[in-house]
């Protein structure tokens, strides 16, 4: 009998479909630190909104700062609040993990994420299509539930 597909099944709350995410320095950075005899900073974590409207994953600076990362680049971001004018945001390479109660965590070893201040909105990040393209998302509005399979 095939093993079950790891998945997350959660209620959709007032803020939408939320998921707990763990952020760490990227695996290549972890290996470089290890080779230099230096420890990797501890992981950080927070609640992210699953956002099919976000082309890439966004992380609040409060989660990125403890990782002691340097920006790997920048990107122009368009949002409804910028009235069509792009805003330049820093990008960082991180390891991203989402836990599952019925299997191994979903982990991306090196993912470029965009820094965006989101904590005042009650979330620590947006889980964008760059991550969602590697999963199956079922949004059941009638039951107010979602399933994320990977």
Give structural attributes.
single chain; 150 residues; mainly beta; Cathepsin D, subunit A, domain 1; 6-stranded mixed β-barrel; 3-stranded antiparallel beta sheet; 41% strand
Order of helices and strands: EEHEEHEEEEHEE
Under CATH, the topology is which?
A: Cathepsin D, subunit A, domain 1
Query: Mind telling me which CATH architecture this is?
Result: Beta Barrel
Uncertain runs? none
Q: What helical percentage do the residues reach?
A: 10-25%
Overall number of domains: 1
What would CATH call the class? Answer: Mainly Beta
The CATH homologous superfamily is termed Acid Proteases
Q: Mean pLDDT score, rounded? A: 95
Q: Which outline best applies?
A: globular
Main sheet properties? 6 strands, mixed, barrel
The computed structural class is mainly beta
Radius of gyration using CA atoms only: 16 Å
Residue share in β-strands: 35-45%
Number of helices: 3
What's the total count of β strands? 10
Major β-sheet strand ordering: 2-3-8-4-7-6
- End-to-end span in angstroms? 18 Å
InterPro entries: Peptidase_aspartic_dom_sf
Organism: Paraburkholderia dipogonis
Protein name: Peptidase A2 domain-containing protein
């Amino acid at each position: 009998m095939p093993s079950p597909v790891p998945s997350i099944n959660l209620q959709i709350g007032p803020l939408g479909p939320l998921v707990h995410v763990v952020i760490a320095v990227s695996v290549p950075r972890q290996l470089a630190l290890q080779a230099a005899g230096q420890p990797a900073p501890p992981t950080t974590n927070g609640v992210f909104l699953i956002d099919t409207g976000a082309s890439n994953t966004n992380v609040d600076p409060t989660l990125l700062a403890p990782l002691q990362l340097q920006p790997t680049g920048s990107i122009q971001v368009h949002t409804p609040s910028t009235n069509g004018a792009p805003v330049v945001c820093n990008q960082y390479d991180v390891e991203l993990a989402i836990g599952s109660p019925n299997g191994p965590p979903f982990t991306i070893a090196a993912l470029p994420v965009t820094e965006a201040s989101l904590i005042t909105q009650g979330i620590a990040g947006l889980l964008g299509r760059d991550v969602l393209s590697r999963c199956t998302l079922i949004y059941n509005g009638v039951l107010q539930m979602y399933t994320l399979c990977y």
